């Protein structure tokens, strides 16, 4: 269901208005933060980003989602992106940076943002920095979710999913009561196609080759905070809060 981007406030339920006002009041005292989350697949970025987003009143800019939204909304940049995708080309770095630039102007991004999935290369990092510089801002912190490849392999290849609800299990860390069967419905669990050792290996190779240099690029600016991402999620959350406080 499409939502009207500018609803008439008279039609918004009072509870929603109150909650939004309270959220904005709480947020007004928070410092602005512009963050990048970097880490290989399975390092826990997806678990931590909603917590950081709520705690610091930031907007979450996931480049894949933003591209799809721009294409769906038929914005000028979205139209260009769709042309590239239809041809089977990669969307250019300048286009992605332009879409991030547009998204940052939304009221929800007033206190800053979390960028996830971008920049993946040093060239992208440079273009992002140039765009932020034109706006008179810069990246405050890069959270590096550092984790050993072997730990990731165990994490990812043990993941099992109940397809209709998205409930996830792990053969070692959170096994279902009966192997391969959903606890609630008794239906079979599946493994996602990209949760195999082979797919992980190629994704990790790409991460080490392309994205590790991005960490070095930001480390030279003195803004990288290294997190031990193999720790339990609650401990990683506590470490993130220490780094950002």
TrEMBL record:
Coiled-coil ranges per UniProt: none
Reactions that this protein is recorded to catalyse: AMP + ATP = 2 ADP
Pfam families hit by this protein: ADK, ADK_lid
EC class: transferase
Superkingdom of the source species: Eukaryota
GO molecular function, one term: ATP binding
Gene3D superfamilies found in the cross-reference section: P-loop containing nucleotide triphosphate hydrolases (3.40.50.300)
Enzyme Commission code(s) on record: 2.7.4.3
Residue ranges annotated for the Adenylate kinase active site lid domain, each copy included: 159-194
Keyword line: Kinase, Nucleotide-binding, Transferase
PANTHER family: NUCLEOTIDE KINASE
Family under the similarity heading: Belongs to the adenylate kinase family.
Function, in words: Catalyzes the reversible transfer of the terminal phosphate group between ATP and AMP. Plays an important role in cellular energy homeostasis and in adenine nucleotide metabolism.
Name of the protein in its database record: adenylate kinase
Organism expressing this protein natively: Iris pallida
Taxonomic lineage of the native organism: Eukaryota, Viridiplantae, Streptophyta, Embryophyta, Tracheophyta
